[in-house]
Amino acid sequence: MGKLNYISGMKKQKYQYQSFMPSLIDKPFDWEDRRINMLLEEANRYLGELNAYSTLIPDVDFFIHMHIMKEATKSSRIEGTQTAIEEAVVSEEEVLPERRDDWKEIQNYTKAMNYAIDRLTHLPLSVRLLQETHGILLDSVRGEHKNPGEIRKSQNWIGGSSIADAFFIPPHHDDLPELLSDLEKFWHNDRLDIPELVKIAISHYQFETIHPFLDGNGRIGRLLVALHLISKGVLGKPTLYLSDFFEKNKASYYDSLTMVRHTSDMQQWIRFFLSGVKNVAQSSKDTLKQIVALRMETEQKLLDTGKRIHKCQELLKFLYSNPIVTSKDIQKRLSITHPTANELINVFTNRGILSELDLPIRSRAFGYMEYLNLFN
Length: 376
Description:
Elements: E1 9-14, E2 17-22, H1 34-56, H2 60-78, H3 85-88, H4 100-119, H5 127-137, H6 176-188, H7 196-210, H8 217-231, H9 243-248, H10 250-263, H11 266-301, H12 309-321, E3 324-325, H13 327-334, H14 338-350, E4 355-357, E5 365-367, H15 369-372
Antiparallel strand pairs: 1-2, 3-5, 4-5
């Protein structure tokens, strides 16, 4: 790969600018870099451990909700939102008006991810699926006027104040049908002797280079990684998301993608991508192990709550997907009165499970911080 048998593409003159036309990718790839093989082996091993561990945990879907929320927060932060995960997990009515736009973008990402994962049971990984997901992502938020759910029919660009001084100009919209058809064929071409993780790395690069939507390409491209892992059976549960790694290494992330376009060095991008998979798979497995230990420890703290034990257990399960709550949240979820909700809050605070937080929201909030901090 790299300069061995891969040319990234070429500039095409379009009116007063040159767009970048990437090479088609539905073809065999080879590489000489042995580091790729080593990283591939390590990444697959950690993915296997994560996959095995996630299938053994009872109620794992509650914890997966927080994995998705973390992914939504990190992926959106790469695009400039300022909402932290502590704010992202509170209800809309608690969010201050001036912070609601960023909050809404994160909720849309979460909805889009959940929708796409569910849709995979009825529809294969496809451009159509990404379009449907994109429509949810940009619903009633910034970008809502940029044709949500539709492949662009005009030129876009990255960086700069206009196309005249743009940092990168993706392919012209007339070229998108051929490029997206090729990408879709690549996803499903089982005749290609390419390891799935390498295929996913190339796919992410190609999608970001094509930039098929007027807005939201970065978020959809990162979401695509998780969908690809699930659709190919690499993961049984959606427990691995790379946006945290990409955000922590944001400059390297963008530099690696740019390097492929400028030098055709796909090997460097694949090494970076596999390093991310290895890193995140290992940390995700460790997080699940810590969740199990914390769960056992917390359940022990609630054993002496007498007749309230069942409501306490119900509240604890709720906290696994909603680690920051108000009295009103608890009343609504557990169908109990305001005094009973406050009584439960006192039980949990007295045992060190919940603590009162100072957040820029409307009501008094209480957080299951030992749990939430596992996702920070």
